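Recap from last week: sequence in, structure out.
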Amino acid sequence: MEGLEHPDDLIDDLSRGLDSALAAVKRASGRGWSRNCGPGAKLWRMSLIGFHRFLIGSAIVFCGGFAGWEFRAYSASGATGTLVMGVVFVFLTLGLVYYLWHLQRFLGYEDR
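Predicted structure tokens:
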């Protein structure tokens, strides 16, 4: 693969992507993460949309990681099935990133 000299480069890219996704979740949820101030309570509260964003971010990390795993398996074995699965999961990752980026529009909220 051109531009990816070592498998650790993929891990670094995924790590930076996870950091970006988590920062986007915090920014986009409006109120962000808030702690319940009850006596001794350390539970985290978030809106339903915020939790949805967190789940989408988790799916992005999973799909991207699985695509990387499949590409690495393809480079080791040369099996066509692993290449196909890698490509499919790259497209799933890109679709989920697009969905997360435009979630407000998908949910019917107008831009403000």
